[in-house]
Amino acid sequence: MPEQIQQIKAGYEFAGGALEFGAAVLDGTAYPEAKVKIPLAVINRHGLVAGATGTGKTKTLQLMAEQLSQGGVPVFLADIKGDLSGMASPGVTNDKVTARAADIGEEWVGTAYPTEFYALGGLGKGSRSAPRCPRSGRRCWQRCWGSTRPRSRAWVWCSTTPTPRGCGSMTSKTCGRSSNT
Asked: What pTM does this model have?
């Protein structure tokens, strides 16, 4: 095993659960014994998946969501283009997928994951997601979800966006607190 791969393997050895992203690759050769992973203990922190078109950003997010779902962790993904909606159905295998999985020492199995789709403002297919307490909504949202003021502004946009059928069902009663404080 090359020195670089040994260093990578040592860098990803830690106790406890982890999300696996594949294996280290050097000069086009995959080394399945050098798994690339992130400890579950740090998944509650901010992260960034960035790269050029076609480099695997969406697949990386999908892999993370699938593994968290398998572990019983609820996942919310904002997927404007619908790239991740396929998680609701088991994938179909092909030679390329099977070969890549074998290269990194994995067995690929198409799996469907529990999925619920939301429709922002109640428009389109999916569960309606806009709350309906427009005047006191921001404070209610902050109390219910422990949100900060900037995050609650996004809620206000949702709640004030006009829809043909009105908004969703969040009220100060849903919060369990008075909205006047």
From this structure: 0.61
